[in-house]
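Notes from the 1:1 (GR / supervisor)

We went over the backlog. Supervisor wanted to see one worked example end to end before approving the batch request, so GR pasted a single chain during the call. The sequence is below; no edits were made to it. Supervisor asked that the structure be written out right there so they could see what the output format looks like.
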Amino acid sequence: MPYALCPFCFSTLHVTPEQLAVKSGVIRCGHCHKVFNARENELSADIERTIPIKPNEDITQSSTATQEHSSEADSPPIIAAWESTKTTHHYKLPYGLLSFVLVLVLLTQIAFIESTRLTQNTQLQPFFKKLNNTFDLSIPSYQNLDEIHIIARQLTPHSKLDELLSFQLTIKNSALAEQPYPSIKLLLTSTLGEPIAQGVFTKNDYLADSEINDYFAPQSLRNITLTFQKPSKTAFGFEISFQP
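Structure output shown during the call:
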C-alpha cells in the first residue's frame, strides 16, 4: 500500500510500511498538516495507476511523511482526534485579594497594639463618644488618674451623729478631656501611722442617682462628702488614693 488519500485536503501521500507501523497507521498530511489514519484511507492499486503524481509533490509528501517518522523522538507525540486527553488547569492565586487581606490583618494588629494610645488621645474623645452613642459601642473612654488632683480634704466628726465621721473632699480633673469619676480609697491611720481601717468608695457612693452615668468634665472641680461609721480605734490621720 504505497499511497494514502488525505480525507481533509484530498492530497495523495506516499507512505511506507515502516511509517504505517508507527501510531497504528496514523500520519500527518504534508499539505494541510491534519492527522488521519492512513490504513483507513488507503488507495487501491488500480487507483494508484490512474492518479498522476507530480514529481516535486511526491518528494515533498514522501519527505514529509518520512520526517514524521524520523523526528518522532524529537517532536511531541501526535494526538489523533479519537485520543482523549485530560487538560490540566493551573489556578493562579489572586494576589490582589491576598495583599488586601494581609494589609487588613496588619492594620487590625496595629489598631489592637495601639488601642491604648488611641483611646487616650484627648483630641479623639468626642469622636469615640459619638461612635459609642450612635452604634452602641464600648470604646474605652479617656482615663488618667494622675490628672485628678486633690484641692481640699478634711476629716471631722459628724455634726449630728457621734458614731459617724464626715469626710469632705474637693478634687479637680486637670485633663483636657472628660473621664470617669474615680473610686476613692480612704485609709485611716493611728498616731504611729499604722492602718486601723480602710474603705473604697465608688462613684455610686458619692454621686446622686441622676449623675451616676455622668463623666468628670475637663478642668472642673467636684465637692464630695463621705459619711461612715467610726472605727473602734481613734483615727489620727488618713491617706487618700484613687482607683479606676
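Supervisor's comment: Residues 193 and 233 are 13 Å apart (CA to CA).
Batch request approved.
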